[in-house]
Amino acid sequence: MELTAVLIPAEEGGYLAYNPETGTASEGESIDEALANLREATSLYLEEFPLAVTGHPLVTMFSIPAHT
Known about the structure:
Layout: E1 6-9, E2 15-19, E3 24-28, H1 31-48
Antiparallel strand pairs: 1-2, 2-3
């Protein structure tokens, strides 16, 4: 099963990792560690709450004007 991972640099270092399909989140010191931790958290979540995947999500970016 392929799922989405959103990685954001953490203020204290490392990365926050989030899976929007399940709402699971984790963190790690490196991208690889954050993804491994997210994979584990999401797997445990899916054991309790199975997910029927209906297709790949569309992930995009958008801009807003900067406030001065």
